[in-house]
Structure formats: structure tokens, C-alpha cells
Design goal:
By secondary structure, this protein is mostly helical. The termini are far apart. The protein has five helices and no strands. The longest helix has 32 residues. The protein has one domain.
């Protein structure tokens, strides 16, 4: 299952970047039109993945895993409502959550790379332990970091073509 999540993330990032910067104009327009639903799909998949790893596979989440979940889980609801309402202003609430989550995930990943550091995590669920190690470098925090980054990219792509409504003049 970890390989499936890893491959999906790789395809998502490569596909998004390729279409955005090297794809034909029609494909770029399609990406801009579907960027918000795609960001929501990334949030749903990341949430489902984290629940799978803890509830089905039995991996005990560490403290930083919980912080990443605290940033990711509300994105499912926030982006879902935005998709339903076609609300381009969701960028103002979703990007801060995604940036905070990405920074936590990046810090967590570097803890795994350099485990001799001290951390706040308990010995029952150490932050340096790698439950998975796909392709020898991909761990759960790296998957979380890429998910948050992909959500940020998609929200920025979505917002490029949709003007933010102006406030009425007083």
C-alpha cells in the first residue's frame, strides 16, 4: 500500500508540473479548471492513507504525525466546501494550513534522516522510527510533505485564472 501512495504522489507532482509548464494550452486550461477538485482529492487520499497506516496497518503515529494530521484533516472539509461552492478564496484558509503541515512534515522527515537529534517524541512512538521506507527514501513524513506541497501548487494554479471578488466600494 505504501508503494501505491508513493507512486500516486510521484505521478501527481510530475503530472502537475509537466502540464503546468510544458503541456499544451488546452491541457493547462484543463488543469486550471480542475486544480481545486484535484487538491481536494490529494487531501482525501492523504487522510485515507494516514488512517490506513494507523487503523489498518497498526502503525502508531508519533507526535509530529498527529500535528501533520491536524493540518491535513481540515483540508478535506475546507477544500470540499470550496469545490462545492466554486470558491477561489479558499486559498486564504487552505494555504496556511498546508504550509504549516508541510513545514512540520519536513522537520519530521529530517528527524528521520538524522535520528541522533533530540526530539519531543516519546519512546512509545519515536519520531525517528520509519514505519515504511519505500524506494529507500520515502517515508510517511515525506509523503505528507509532498501531499501538502501538491495541494499548495494546485491551489496556486487554481487561483491564477480566477479573480478574487472585489469588496464593494464604500
Amino acid at each position: 500500500m505504501a508503494i501505491l501512495f508513493t507512486v500516486l504522489l510521484i505521478l501527481g507532482v510530475v503530472g502537475t508540473v509537466t502540464v503546468r509548464f510544458a503541456g499544451p494550452q488546452t491541457l493547462r486550461n484543463e488543469l486550471q479548471q480542475s486544480a481545486l477538485p484535484l487538491a481536494w482529492l490529494v487531501a482525501i487520499t492523504a487522510t485515507a492513507g494516514s488512517l490506513y497506516f494507523s487503523e489498518v496497518a497498526g502503525y502508531t503515529p508519533c507526535e509530529f504525525c498527529w500535528y501533520q494530521r491536524i493540518a491535513m484533516y481540515p483540508l478535506v472539509l475546507t477544500l470540499g466546501v470550496a469545490v462545492r461552492r466554486q470558491d477561489p478564496t479558499v486559498i486564504y484558509s487552505a494555504i496556511p494550513l498546508a504550509v504549516v503541515g508541510a513545514l512540520i512534515a519536513l522537520y519530521h522527515y529530517q528527524l528521520q534522516l538524522f535520528p541522533d537529534q533530540s526530539s519531543l517524541c516519546s519512546s512509545g512512538a519515536p519520531c525517528t522510527f520509519r514505519w515504511i521506507e519505500t524506494f529507500e527514501i520515502v517515508s510517511i513524513p515525506l509523503m505528507a510533505f509532498v501531499s501538502f506541497s501538491l495541494i499548495i501548487m494546485l491551489l496556486l494554479i487554481n487561483n491564477r485564472t480566477r479573480p478574487v471578488p472585489e469588496e464593494p466600494h464604500r
